[in-house]
């Protein structure tokens, strides 16, 4: 009897992605796994059941969970969904343990073996499983498109019989995966692009995409490829210097995030007040509260003529390709655990061990265990 | 006493543009004209009064019209606005005489000398005054951006550690100024682009932008650079052949318009039914009823998973640059009429005569005269 990999319809509000894609079904088949899909699981991504060639379509989530050996999810299952999981089954998804400690406790109580994709160590072997990167790439691309759509100005230079329109200036704050894709997309559209990051090591990447690196004389290289937090004095200097550059922007895209913490407030109201009327801010850090103090997560507001757009779950808006990349990340994580048609994870592998959240009735990640159960 | 050129705030619903721009104010000044601007005229375009350096700001439209020798407008003035115009003054704008015959009659009755920018003959000397072209360029660019924003798919190819996302296919129907800008913008974003036009002469232009020309074996070159109407048999053949191509599209942008007539219906429901779920149609011909039979002008609908977006007055969404280009078109038209600081049009000039709509109590354009007054 082959292993049953089950993919339910996501239930979180606004979530359009689905944790499966047709090419992944075929590859799992070769590994001896059968894919079960809840009917309509792809509908919010404009993917009908027929787009999942080779999957067995199941009429309801309850029926799906009863049969599942391994459940693949985009977002963490709700408590009601965890209730339906089969005791001892395996769950893989972006489980956001820090936001949902009560769900981790429920997974533990139900003896679920759960893996959080965000906890996979960022080593080169695991790049192909990196959902943070794949979804950030989508978000960065989309941020530039949203900026172009909301702006009352043209991005490219336009030469006409009546004269020439100068290209827009797009400034990007935070040069991670999302920032780099935003730079590349704004450049493709013909905008003049400048970018800033506290990590000066990003300068070459910015320049290689044809953009100008903004130098402020402050650096904050941190661990794991992220930025460390700045001191208050550094923050003030950063804000004042940045404000001068930002005053010239037609579109500002901010992507600065510190994992597990609220987004740093690097765009105060005074900076927005210095911007031109009709300028657009796309605050990609809205999930963590936003990089701009005026940001209202999930909303689009206008402040003194400046349009501040703070979308949540941006990858979900590009649901077809975001799902495809996410499903491929899951496949790459799952593949080494499937041997000769059987589920046989090597828990000593640093990638598997790093992602492991709950197993055999225990919380395996120490900092999350402390969060859920308290320090001992 | 210098000539007073007056620019009111546009009053038509959804109109954000303004018929003036700062560089045009300076140039008119050198020609001996003074620019008067109604306060807030640029506010919908995110242009505060202070953006119109050199213009005299006037508190109300009524006060503005009392002083005006020449009034510059984006859209045709309403009957209430015409009521406020000074007897014998000059009006220049996109007056849409075929849509508003009652307003033309009112302009005649009020002894206004009116010029319709759309009626300027399309000769090379007049290219710099061509508002149809300048605004269509904006609309074509914006159509590609709207397509990218509404699509659940990435436009560019994306290569990641987890695999490669193929680029989207964008198909553009109608290769005029708008179609060419849509092609160029979709190409910039990395999409694979195909385009179709009944005028086979557009093939080279399409190819020069890196897109593929769709050959159907039907041609319909018409007068003045527009397409002639097809016969019913030609239309059926065109639709059937096009449908096969369109079935492969991720985004379809239609721009087919025949001047003064409803937009040709080249995308029937059966063609839409053949499209993939999540495909997007941007119907730029919505003002004339649309190129798709399902189009609801001004709305976004979903039909069997296909998103059909039919925006009205697209240039208005890019109001800063659309206003700038429009104002430059007006300047180029107005310049030859201003001699030694005086308004002195040469009515024998074919450009000026071509645009002339009403003058000295008469309707000067014969086909519009017949429309308004009936044949004699």
From TrEMBL, chains A, B:
InterPro entries: Ala_DH/PNT_CS2, AlaDH/PNT_N, AlaDH/PNT_NAD(H)-bd, NAD(P)-bd_dom_sf. Residues 6-139 form the Alanine dehydrogenase/pyridine nucleotide transhydrogenase N-terminal domain. The keyword NAD applies. Signal peptide: none annotated. Residues 148-310 form the Alanine dehydrogenase/pyridine nucleotide transhydrogenase NAD(H)-binding domain. Keywords: NAD, NADP, Nucleotide-binding, Oxidoreductase, Translocase. It comes from the Bacteria. It catalyses: NAD(+) + NADPH + H(+)(in) = NADH + NADP(+) + H(+)(out). This is proton-translocating NAD(P)(+) transhydrogenase. It comes from Thiothrix lacustris.
């Amino acid at each position: 009897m082959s292993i049953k990999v089950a993919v339910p319809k996501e239930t979180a509000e606004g979530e359009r992605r689905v944790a499966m894609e047709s090419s992944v079904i075929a590859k799992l088949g070769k590994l001896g796994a059968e894919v079960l899909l809840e009917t309509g699981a792809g509908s919010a991504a404009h993917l009908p059941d027929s787009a999942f060639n080779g999957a067995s379509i199941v009429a309801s989530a309850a029926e799906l969970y009863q049969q599942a050996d391994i459940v693949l999810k985009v977002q963490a299952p709700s408590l009601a969904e965890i209730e339906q999981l089969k005791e001892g089954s395996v769950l893989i998804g972006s489980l956001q343990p820090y936001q949902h400690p009560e769900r981790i406790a429920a997974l533990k109580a139900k003896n679920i073996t759960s893996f959080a994709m965000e906890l996979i160590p960022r080593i080169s072997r695991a790049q192909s499983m990196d959902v943070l990167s794949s979804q950030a790439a989508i978000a960065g691309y989309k941020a530039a498109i949203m900026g172009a759509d909301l702006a009352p100005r043209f991005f490219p230079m336009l030469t006409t019989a009546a004269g020439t329109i100068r290209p827009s200036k797009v400034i990007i704050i935070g040069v991670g995966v999302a920032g780099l894709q935003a730079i590349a997309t704004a450049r493709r559209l013909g905008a003049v692009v400048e970018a800033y990051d506290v990590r000066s090591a990003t300068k070459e990447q910015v320049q290689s995409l044809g953009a100008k690196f903004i130098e402020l004389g402050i650096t904050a290289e941190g661990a794991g490829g992220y930025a460390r937090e700045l001191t208050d004095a550094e923050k003030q200097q950063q804000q004042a210097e940045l404000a001068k550059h930002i005053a010239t922007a037609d579109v500002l895209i901010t992507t600065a995030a510190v994992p597990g913490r609220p987004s740093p407030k690097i765009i105060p109201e005074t900076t927005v007040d210095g911007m031109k009327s009709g300028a657009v801010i796309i605050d990609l850090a809205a999930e963590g509260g936003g990089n701009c103090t005026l940001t209202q997560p999930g909303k689009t507001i206008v402040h003194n003529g400046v349009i501040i757009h703070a979308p949540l779950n941006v990858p979900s808006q590009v649901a077809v390709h975001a799902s495809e990349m996410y499903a491929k990340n899951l496949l790459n994580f799952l593949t080494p655990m499937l041997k000769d048609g059987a589920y046989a994870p090597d828990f000593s592998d640093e990638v598997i061990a790093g992602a492991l959240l709950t197993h055999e009735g225990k919380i395996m990640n120490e900092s999350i265990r402390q969060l859920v159960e308290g320090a001992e």
